[in-house]
Amino acid sequence: MNNAPSEARDGATITLRVQRGVPQQAHAVQTYTVPAEAAASLLDGLRWVRTHVDDTLAFRYACINANACKECMMRLDGKTVYACTARLEPGHDYAVAPLPNKPLVRDLMTAIAPSKERLFGGEEDDER
Ligand code: FES
Q1: 100 alpha carbon to ligand 1 midpoint, in Å?
Q2: For residue 40, what are the CA distances in angstroms to 16, 19, 102, 103, 112?
Q3: 55-94 burial by CB neighbour count: b if 16+ within 10 A, else e?
Q4: Where's the Succinate dehydogenase/fumarate reductase N-terminal domain (predicted)?
Q5: Measured on CA atoms in the order 39, 43, 45, 51, is the torsion positive or negative?
Q6: With bands split at pLDDT 50, 70 and 90, how would you rate the model's confidence at 10?
Q7: Which CATH class is domain 5-126?
Q8: In the chain, domain spans
Q9: 106 - beta bridge partners?
């Protein structure tokens, strides 16, 4: 049994390298270190960042870990995931990005509803 403090500390955090930005501008990557116990899922980790570090980080979710709303889709290490069901491992480093095939709103938030289903900004708005 090895309880060396440095090993415990190394495994006690998760690193999230999050792509941030708005449409029509170059994006930046911001790195956040999250306590592993606060980030069992990617959504948990992002919510921890927004609560404790940076309340400007934008991402979308509605049901929190029920996997019912389907609004938390984003990219984790290049794969499309639901943030609420994507499990994170202590001591690991992850790249987080918005969906590449949807219009970017800001940071990790994309316009996921078809334009005809949006209240404003859809094609029907152009016909007024
Ligand atoms: S938060 Fe609702 S499906 Fe992920």
Answers
A1: 19
A2: 13, 20, 26, 28, 25
A3: eebbbbbeeeeeeeeebbbbbbeeeebbbbebebebeeeb
A4: 16-110
A5: negative
A6: low
A7: alpha beta
A8: 5-126
A9: 109
pTM: 0.81
Q: Per-residue pLDDT tens for 40-53?
A: 999 999 999 999 99
How far, in Å, from the CA of 60 to the mean position of ligand 1? 9
d(C-alpha 110, C-alpha 22), whole Å: 10
**What is the rounded CA–CA span in Å between residue 58 and residue 100?**
16
Mean pLDDT of 71-98: 96
Rg (CA), the chain: 17
